[in-house]
Amino acid sequence: MTAILDLGDLGLDEGAHLLIKRALASAHEVEVRGTSATLAIDLPAWTRAQGHRLEPRAGGFLLARGPDRWRGAERAGTLATPEAHAPARWGLAARGALVEAGAPELDLPLADRATVWADEAARLYAQAAAAQWDPATAIPWDAPAHHPPEVEDAVVQVMTYLIENETAALLVPVRFLGKLHPHFREVMQLLAIQAADEARHIEVFTRRACLRRDALGLSTAGGQASLATLFDEPDFAIASFLLSVLGEGSFLSLLWFLSDHAPDACTREVALLAARDEARHVAFGLAHLQRHVDEDPSVRERLAGAIERRHAALAHTAGLNAEVFDALVLLAAGSWEPADLRRGHAAVTALTQQMLQGRIQRLRRLGFDAERAAELAALHTRNFM
Amino acid sequence: MSEPKELVLGAVAYDAKVVPIWEGFRAYFRERGLPFDFVLYSSYERQVEAHLRGDIDVAWSSPLAWIETVRAARTRGRTAEAIAMRDTDRDLTSVVLVRADGPIREVADLRGRRIGVGAADSPQATLIPLEVLAEAGLAGASLGEVVRHDVLVGKHGDHIGGERLAVEALLAGRVDAACVIDGNHLAFTREGLITKGQVRVVLQTPPYDHCNITILDGGPPAITRFRELLLAMSYEDARVRPLLDMEGLKAWCPGRTTGYALLERAVDRFGAIDRWLDGWLGRLADEARLAP
User: Fold this and answer.
1) Are residues B229 and B285 in the same domain?
2) Domains with residue ranges and CATH for chain A
3) Co-location of B80 and B101 in the same domain
4) Rg (CA), chain A
5) B98 and B83 within one domain
6) Cβ-defined contact of B235 to A67 (cutoff 8 Å)
7) Regarding beta strands B177-181 and B115-116, do their DSSP bridges make them parallel or antiparallel, or are they unpaired?
8) Which residues in chain B are closer than 8 Å to A40, comparing Cβ atoms?
9) Domain range for residue B173?
């Protein structure tokens, strides 16, 4: 049946093509009439470019629908839940969109739900988005400080170490973000906002370090070697295991330690705000690995193997970060008084124990038995990350 | 056994996108077992001469290049054939635009006026509209001044630039009328170059055809397969669609030569290819003299 469309005086140069497309969507043939001065020029030109057929008729034109570019189009899964595998042909299309066939295929190897997904991603992303803070106003940069100069030097050393670790924590997930199929939208958003968190942490640690000093502290070869192994890890599960579950988990203990022992309000707030963000990063790492391990228990031994390899790789380096350890002792002591140093030393020893216990706990959550968890936790690199 | 001989197509590089277009077509033909390659030329005249010389087997011809090929071939007792064309090459028209707030109301008002056209060798923006005006009695002294916008001469108006300059000149008052192809009237309005009600159409030409795929003397045997594969390209095939989109068509149609009469008359009236044809014949004569 031929539909009849009267465009009135609306021209093709004013949006009349929308009415024609709408009419052609429900009828194979449409008789188009109109009074626009240039209809007889613009309609044939538009029709030709669209591949529709056109015949002049008394008082108008008869249009017959041309080839359909949407033949063979498919939905990129459903809006609500990601598919088990996201094909490369869906490319950058939003989850649930109708995707025209023939789009270029992007190289997005992280395309399996089992490898990347965690049901918690959406919730954690929303939480992160709501918890973004402004370094300019959230931190009391002008708070008074009365600690000795050498304690300030210790703060600068710890900040230097934190910046280095946060740089790894920014760059490592971002490398995977670039390989993640955007079908897993919530995970993509979460990794992106984590990167933004780390960028902010790098800013505040740098600013705190430079508050009373114009040079930063030491960066050790061992510390860098430890972080470099994270860059070499091509497997998303293993990298997020090493970074989030083991590294950032221990980092979290360190930040709490800093907020407890900070010599000034500014350092305390910097540590506290960063710790809140890091807790989310650890929660996501654990959630998606738990899911991964549940779906494929063999993953657990791959993770264990990664710790063993990392330990072996570091055995030949000066992994122990003495500078940071000593700086933490002095920072916790607050002075060179022997009694204070004893207290500071005890606090840092307790911190290392706490880190170890935290690692064991998280490994148990991934299904390692107590003995294996303790063994693996002890092997974890002596650098904190 | 030697490799089968490749079928070589010539095309004019009027835009950088010509490279990915023909790379894509090359892959399409080769995947279907037809050894195919292409050569790009900087002007249609170079391409037509190369075709006549046998450097290429088949040419993607502008309408003017088609007439050049036909007429040059005829002087040597040879025949040209249009074997395919795009659906978008059929039944085009050109329009003559004037400022809506100006005094020009009809074609006769163009007498003695400045007419902005595209490149000298553009069929759609120069030769055909000027022919239609001439047939309406406006030619030579009675027409006034023809103001050319020579963008990429040798590319036969394939580049949109000349027509855009003509419209800009019209809007700025440097010319009294501008000649463009029908599709560009709509395109220029959509991109905001022309605002609604700013121009009036005083003339729409009769329909004419544009490019075609040309062979000489029946072409090599592989031409049959080439034409079959070309006509079989379906816009609903996702692998082929990007190529068709780039080349600006939805389907290839069989070639027809009934749509070039208007341009033939323009070429005769304005002597549009005389200089080139004389030059080519002269070079052939020189070569014949120098041959051992």
Assistant:
1) yes
2) 2-64 (3.30.110), 70-107 (no CATH), 113-379 (1.10.620.20)
3) no
4) 30
5) no
6) yes
7) parallel
8) 204
9) 94-204
Is the pLDDT score of B1 beyond 60? no
In the numeric block, which tokens belong to residue A330?
């002095």
What are all long-range contacts of A290-299, with beta carbons under 8 Å and residues at least 24 apart?
A290/A118, A290/A365, A290/A366, A290/A367, A291/A114, A291/A117, A291/A118, A291/A119, A292/A114, A292/A115, A292/A237, A293/A366, A293/A367, A295/A114, A296/A114, A297/A367, A299/A237
On whether residue B27 sits in a domain, the answer given is yes
Q: Do A44 and B91 touch (CB under 8 A)?
A: yes
Q: How far is CA A229 from CA A44, A163, A355, B12, in A?
A: 64, 17, 20, 54
Out of A49, A66, A102, name the one closest to residue B239 (CB). A102
| Whole-complex ipTM | 0.88
Report the residue of A9, A12, A13, A17 to disrupt the B interface, i.e. the one with the largest count of B CBs within 10 Å. A13
Among the three residues B175, B204, B233, which one is the final residue of a domain in this structure?
A: B204
pLDDT of residue A317: 46
Buried b (16+ CB within 10 A) or exposed e, B52-70: beeebbbbbbbbbbbbbbb
pLDDT of residue A309: 81
Q: Which residues of A touch B190 (CB under 8 A)?
A: 13
Residue B127 carries which side chain, given as an amino acid letter?
A: L
In angstroms and rounded to an integer, the radius of gyration of the C-alpha atoms of chain B is: 20
Q: What is the pLDDT of residues A73-126, one digit of tens each?
A: 999 999 999 999 999 999 999 999 999 998 889 999 999 998 899 999 999 999
Encode pLDDT of B90-114 as tens digits: 999 999 999 999 999 999 999 999 9
Beta bridge partners of A2: A29
Q: What is the band of B3 on the pLDDT scale with cuts at 50, 70, 90?
A: low
- Say yes or no to pLDDT of B76 above 50: yes
Tell me the one-letter amino acid at B128: I
* Total number of domains constituting chain B: 2
pTM: 0.80
pLDDT tens digits for A145-180? Answer: 999 999 999 999 999 999 999 999 999 999 999 999
Residue whose tokens read 């950058």: A92
| Total residues found in chain B within this entry | 292
Q: Nearest CA to CA, how far is A35 from chain B (Å)?
A: 14
Strand partners, B99: B199
The C-alpha of B248 sits at a distance from chain A's nearest C-alpha, in angstroms, of 7
Residue numbers of chain A with a pLDDT score lower than 50: 317-320, 384-385
Q: What is the DSSP string of B106-161?
A: SGGGGTT--EE-S-TT-IIIIIHHHHHHHHTT--GGGT--EE---SSTTSTT-STH
Put simply, the answer to whether A102 touches B238 (Cβ < 8 Å) is yes
Taking a C-beta distance cutoff of 8 angstroms, is the pair A280, A248 a contact?
no
Stretch B260-275: mean pLDDT: 97
Please report the residues numbered 313 through 332 in chain A whose beta carbons come closer than 8 angstroms to any beta carbon of chain B: none
